[in-house]
Prior knowledge:
The protein is an all-alpha fold.
Amino acid sequence: xxKKEYSYTSISKSDLENILHNRIGIIDLQKIFSAYDMxxxxxxxxxRNDGSPYFYHTTRTAKIMIEIAGIVDxxxxxxxxxxxxxxxxxxxxxxxxxxxxxxxxxxLVEILTKDLSAQKEQLSKIEEEYVRKLAESPIDALxxxxxxxxxxxxxxxxxxxxxxxxxxxxxxxxxxxLAEQSNNNAAKKLLHExxxxxxKFLG
Length: 203
């Protein structure tokens, strides 16, 4: 059987259950499953340039958070799965997320949400404000961002970005310094993996 390209791989709820076995309780697991379902619903009709479902990215990001960053906190994993839903849903709000998943999860998702409409006209300003907001926020927000970028680095060979070199440069400029300035071990691990994937892509 032909091996799937990385961009077409995803993590099922059964996979999550196996990965998190004996590490969290059943109630917390069900909460993560609820976040999984919401993210899958929001991203249902979104596809990347190579045709792969966008939702797969969020599941792989969660796996990276667990297996590389060592994060098993329920609120953080929910935020990881939901990190793009406020950008991509016209109806979801922070209040809806807070009602369903609690204040911290909603807060993290809000931190990770960019104003995409404003970004088209003020790209540099929006990016600078976003990075500043990350720098001033709990480390969990940065970890999710780094994990998402790591997954995207692994997808660059599948035509993820029109200008992959600019994407790498922007990541080095904006997010590498935040990880380098942190004393957090998980941030250091994610930074290391980002550099490995960058070097693979650049040859």
